[in-house]
Amino acid sequence: MNFNIESPTSKEELLNCLRNHQSGYFRLAAGFTDLLIELKKSKTEELTVINLSQIKDKQFTGIDIQPSGIRIGALVNVAQIGKNQSIRKSFPVLQQAADALASGQIREVATIGGNICQASPSGDLSCALVALKASCEILKMDGTIRHESLNDFFRGPAVTSLQKNEVLKSIVIPANQTNKLKSGFIKIGKRSAMECSIVSISYHFQLGADAAILHSGIAIGAVAPTVIFCREAADFLHKLNVNKIHETDQLKVAELIQQSASPIDDQRASAWYRNEVLFNSAKSIFEQD
Asked: Which of 127, 159, 205, 285 is packed most tightly, with the most Cβ within 10 A?
């Protein structure tokens, strides 16, 4: 296989690369943790790889804290997310998902943009970000930006809404509306971080002074063709006291979460097993610290 690598260093150079290769076959990459595996299997004879890792633009490489929320550049690596104190404080579910992804070495090179654009149904960061109601900022070849919720960005296994003339620039997480949180990530896998999830659940509850759930997000991974936002379960919890959720209500939440899933049998787990694990993990949300 023959492939050419181009390494733009600015947004303008990147846009020129996109324009120059619209008629050919090209791939975007940054950490190369997934693409190298794909290239070994590919039968494509001619390929251009646009290497994003050399871009210096802070909108791609930085974590920007604003009153309206937090913007994470697509080239920020997973280790940076796990170590960022603002993320740890305001969005624990994302910090926990970052720490659960692969090995320490991989987290140092794998980027949030690459992880999201893989559109894996078992993506740890994707599951957390969907629970946080994150959105994408997508740079088009003409220099304009389009915005799309991450929930809509995912279209199927390894399929996103991203077009050939577009590149993911950043992820935006809306600011919390309260200071009191219950937020976490549950991952069930054969070897924890080094294994793709068999089931994952992300939850992010924003609480009032009386511990009532005022705003909530719940997402599940590895149990459907895409990461799923569990709207019915989140709506059911509205204004319930997070510290006094009756067992009956816990079961109802677990049932609603389970109803959002459509797992399949594969080499890692059966659909029946995933359903059972999902239900029991959903019940355990209210047992987490």
From this structure: 127
Say if residues 170 and 72 touch (Cβ distance below 8 Å): yes
**Residues 6+ positions from 214 with CB-CB distance below 8 Å:** 177, 178, 206, 207, 208, 238, 239
Domain check: are 125 and 217 in the same one? no
| DSSP state, residue 102 | S
Query: What is residue 35's predicted lDDT score, i.e. its pLDDT?
Result: 62
Structural domain boundaries enclosing 255: 180-287
Choosing from 144, 174, 204, the residue where a domain stops is 174
Q: In terms of Cα–Cα distance, which of 52, 17, 10 is closest to 164?
A: 17
User: What's the Rg (C-alpha) of the chain?
Assistant: 19
Q: Confirm if 93 and 202 have CB atoms less than 8 A apart.
A: yes
Ranges of the chain with pLDDT below 70: 1-2, 33-45, 190-195, 289
C-alpha span between 269 and 252 (Å, rounded): 25
What integer pLDDT is reported at residue 193 of this predicted model? 47
CATH number of the domain bearing residue 104: 3.30.465.10
Burial tier of 274 (Cβ tally within 10 Å: 0-12, 13-18, 19+):
buried
CA distances from 67 to 6, 64, 71, 129, 173 (A): 37, 10, 11, 18, 11
pLDDT of amino acid 41: 61
CA-CA distances (angstroms) from residue 289 to 3, 167, 215, 242, 243? Answer: 49, 38, 18, 11, 10
Predicted pLDDT at 53? 93
Distance separating alpha carbons of residues 199 and 218, to the nearest angstrom? 13
